[in-house]
Amino acid sequence: MTDPHRDPRSTSEPDVRRYLVGLIGDGIGASLTPPMHEAEALELGLDYEYRIFDLIELGRPATDVGAILAEARSAGFAAMNITHPCKQLVLEIVDELDTDAARLGAVNLVVFDGDRLLGYNTDWMGFRDGLVAGLPGASLDHVVQIGCGGAGAATAYALLSQGAEHLGLSDSDSVRAEELAARMRRHFPGQTVHTIEPDELADAIAGATGVVHATPMGMLHHPGVAFDLDLLRPGTWVSDVVYRPLETELINQAAERGHPVLDGGRMAVGQAWASLRIITGIEPDRERMQHSFRELIAAEERHAASEGNPR
Ligand code: NAD
């Protein structure tokens, strides 16, 4: 579009920085991160393109992530988001690691600064910001978290950063729970982080002031709820990291019973908001991003329903 304020005699182009950004991961063709970034960048008046590097489609192993980053840097990319299964691999590849990313042990954003690769983690920021905005005043006295994988590392770190006093970690793979608990204890020595065995989960839920669900249960192909909601005390808040669908069985049932709830959308938008901010140095509009994300999800759900595949 022609800028009406531009001198028509001028031959030089206006000084607009071009941002080329990408996402590396497995099976990410349908990721909502590219449209989220691009829609907000457009609103901010940026020349911004977001590309997908799906390892499965490229036929490349996860261990190629370093080579793909080098290729992207040479091609002029400004930054790359990183997702499953490369978040830990990138820890060893970057030249500089943000303190929080080092502590929680995962990188989901690499920024190219000349020859240097700077690693960040914005997943935990997304959960933290969602918790603060979506569940203001939530009690963090006794929080139970189910699921200690990639998302769970970010939520545990965010909960402890926000001052959770007692955090109980549960996972069907007890080694994962133990490893995450050990990592968190190192960085939050003044707070209690303990693991919960499957046969202790009911008691832990009954004593919780908040429950975070961070397993894939509730997704289209993993239906169900990871714990019995009858165990919750009145007023206990419930948070789900799953966002496809946004209204998981857990979120719906908890809300019906009157519990304060936080769906996975806030975390998903929050990580994109924080990534966009780090990449561009410009403050994106969080509410506008929330709105466009929820429209994208709604369109996806309408499409699934029209295909006879209701979510
Ligand atoms: P992951 O595979 O790294 O971790 C999942 C963990 O849950 C594993 O440790 C597994 O052992 C455990 N688990 C599975 N079923 C369980 C059960 N019934 N009870 C107890 N533990 C169980 O996966 P992830 O990357 O952490 O993703 C988990 C979910 O979070 C996915 O649905 C993903 O889409 C979602 N996610 C959301 C966001 C967001 O921004 N909202 C970000 C990342 C991931």
Which keywords apply here?
disordered N terminus, alpha/beta, 311 residues, Rossmann fold, binds nicotinamide-adenine-dinucleotide, 11 helices, 6-stranded parallel sheet, 2 domains
Structural features, described:
This protein is an alpha/beta fold. It has two domains: 18-121, Rossmann fold (3-Layer(aba) Sandwich); 124-263, Rossmann fold (3-Layer(aba) Sandwich). The chain has helices at residues 33-43, 55-58, 65-74, 99-104, 123-134, 150-161, 174-187, 201-206, 249-256, 265-280, 286-306, and strands at 18-25, 47-54, 79-82, 96-97, 109-113, 116-120, 142-146, 166-170, 192-195, 210-213, 237-240, 261-262. The longest helix is centred in the C-terminal third of the chain and has 21 residues, at 286-306. It is globular. The structure holds nicotinamide-adenine-dinucleotide. The site of nicotinamide-adenine-dinucleotide has 27 residues, from α5, α6 and α10.
| Continuous helix count | 11
Mean pLDDT score, rounded?
93
Helix content: 25-40%
CATH class of the largest domain: Alpha Beta
Main sheet?
A: 6 strands, mixed
Secondary-structure element string = EHEHHEEHEEHEHEHEHEEHEHH
Q: Report the strand count.
A: 12
Tell me what the CATH architecture of the largest domain is: 3-Layer(aba) Sandwich
Distance from N terminus to C terminus (CA atoms, Å) equals 40 Å
